[in-house]
């Protein structure tokens, strides 16, 4: 298992380096001089020149690229062009909020999606199966930002079940904190719920048609045990694979959710860095996202081994 994880991490390094190179190019082809954007149109030529020199923007692009890649490999993310605060400090201040929201969204998707998929597969073609498939189709069709606005209007403004602005603080106001994260987590998990339900249903339909399931039923094993223990266990690898892939997607989707629900997180930090042309902060955030994806993929591989020991020898 250790060899498997190490090999996955090593194969992910070229992906991280390619992502870093891509973001270096993209942030520099965006129209607008960061010196003018940050200092304003009224800044003197001397002030603009000093800003560019202090931040290395007066160097050739190739020199900037080599310096950026060297610092990234060494774990040096630099300081923000706007605030002068270390980029790593800025990321660590908001990273827990994004991880919390994403993990809660994944939990919502799994807790709702897996049972719905199993129930739909037990009676394929029936009205329950039809209702669940219709529900998942609706979940896939509504954009996340639209459902976020609708949830705010209905559950926060009209019914007042949840706060409009996230206010609960961990450790000091635990109930208020979980109440503030519940609505954005549900919104983030709805699309995943729809996907998980469909993945589970399709996997269960195949598993329930296997010979070992028919053998278990012939031996008189209770139907609930056949479905939830024998069949579902063989579908878990597919669910884990999808969850690992979609976890990375949810981290990206959290940008809109954080903005709509006015939550702190990496998403709002990314938008702020783009608007103010804060190259250093934007590049550091890209590194953070790339590392998160690598860690998630490694955790997914580790979960494979826990579910199916045969993976350890693969």
3D architecture notes:
- The protein is built from twelve helices and no strands.
- The chain has 314 residues and is mostly helical.
- Helix 5 (87-122) runs parallel beside helix 12 (279-307) and helix 11 (266-275) packs antiparallel against helix 12 (279-307).
- It is elongated and about 85 Å long.
- The model has no long low-confidence stretch (mean pLDDT 79).
- Helix fraction by DSSP (H/I, runs of at least 4): over 70%
**Low-confidence blocks of residues:** none
| Arithmetic mean pLDDT | 79
Beta-strand percentage?
under 5%
- SS field, number of helical segments: 12
End-to-end span in angstroms?
A: 9 Å
Rg to the nearest angstrom? 24 Å
Silhouette = elongated
Give the topology string: H per helix, E per strand.
HHHHHHHHHHHH
Q: Please identify the structural class as seen in this structure.
A: mainly alpha
Number of strands: 0
Largest sheet: none
Concise structural overview:
This protein has helices at 2-29, 34-39, 45-54, 61-74, 87-122, 127-141, 144-158, 174-208, 211-218, 223-260, 266-275, 279-307. With 314 residues, it is mainly alpha-helical.
